[in-house]
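Take a record:
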Amino acid sequence: MKLDIEQIYWKQNYPFVIGIDEVGRGPLAGPVCSCAVLIRPNYPLPNKFVALVKDSKKLSPQIRQKIYEQAINLPQIIFSISMIDNQTIDTIGIQKSIFQCFDKCISQIINKSKIIPNIILIDGNQTIPHLPYNQKPIIKGDDKIFSIALASVIAKHTRDTWMIQISTKYPKYNFDIHKGYGTEQHKKLIKKYGPCSLHRQSFLH
């Protein structure tokens, strides 16, 4: 993947482009997690790093971890992460939870970078309500836009790591294996043991 779209904006005097994506929309348990990525336009990224980045669903856990570990050490990249728990998802619904997640990420990245974004590129087909910045939703953006793809990788690595860690608290459910998604194994375990406090009750009916 290349930074073609970001470079187009940079040449149009839009230097501060943020890509944002979320993971965990569909699982039966655990949080939704989002990441926002800002790439400094005047500091080229290593070609090998750029070539690694793809839609997180197309990468192995090992490659996602490698990308994450490199990203945190590249000064050209600023990113922020936010998670919304399953109780909030049950209370306000998944879409509002995702928007809340996005809001937090944008606020965090602005506070961290002291930069006001020129445009926010969002994976999907919806803009973030009440956000006072230019936005452009892009269907399958994680397959087309570098900053969105990188956001998807960081969010996926972060959420998966969290689910692996929390699985020690709920060993019966094998969250470290399925990460809360509705696999046949997971559904059988819910049927056997009933839901735990990490499950999204609104997704089980």
Remarks:
- Residues 4-203 form a domain with the Nucleotidyltransferase; domain 5 fold (CATH 3.30.420.10).
